TrEMBL record:
Role: Hydrolyzes RNA 2',3'-cyclic phosphodiester to an RNA 2'-phosphomonoester.
Keyword Hydrolase: yes
Protein name in UniProt: RNA 2',3'-cyclic phosphodiesterase
SUPFAM superfamilies, per the entry: LigT-like
HAMAP family named among the record's database cross-references: RNA_CPDase (MF_01940)
EC number, UniProt record: 3.1.4.58
């Protein structure tokens, strides 16, 4: 099973992202994640037979709730367009410490710097879009361990566990 650790988004943040996706759809084509799949990945764990090591890493998370906001022009990596995230410094500290803990548990983590973003569209086909993500914010109160499955050609994310921030 494919696993990742992520922040699931509030309805207000999700709505801002859906507004941006609608604007993108009017300007080009691509593979748009459905509303229920919008999230902020903290660490991709890859294939794992047993989620126990990932659950153990999640249980060790020590972080207070913090604010997170989206808004402004999207960025892109090649043909993937994303919404940038502004957050309390706690977000980057959380991601960096979580990735270090995952490495120590045998999970392979990328060496490049972590850039917080939320994917709006993959395989974009069109001109450079003229889109602004509406401003929205939330307080992050938990982190989720998610399983990613491909079912009937659709990506389905299932929460296996979560950790409340205190």
């Amino acid at each position: 099973m494919r696993l990742f650790l992520a922040i699931q988004l509030s309805p207000a943040v999700r709505e801002a992202l859906l507004t941006a996706q609608d604007a993108l759809r009017r300007q080009g084509r691509g593979s748009f994640p459905p509303p229920e799949n919008l999230h902020l990945t903290l660490a991709f764990l890859g294939e794992a037979e047993d989620p126990a090591r990932a659950r153990a890493a999640l249980s060790e998370v020590s972080c207070r709730p913090f604010s997170l906001a989206v808004g402004g022009p999207p960025g892109h990596f090649g043909d993937l367009w994303w919404a940038g995230v502004r957050a309390d410094p706690a977000l980057e500290e959380l991601a960096v410490s979580l990735q270090a803990d995952l490495r120590s548990r045998g999970f392979c983590q990328e060496d490049r710097p972590w850039l917080p973003h939320i994917t709006l569209v993959r395989r974009w086909r069109g001109e450079v879009p003229q889109v602004t993500v509406p401003h929205a914010s939330m307080v992050v109160r938990q982190i989720s361990l998610l399983r990613s499955d491909q079912i009937d050609g659709k990506r389905i994310y299932t929460e296996l566990s979560h950790k409340s921030l205190r």
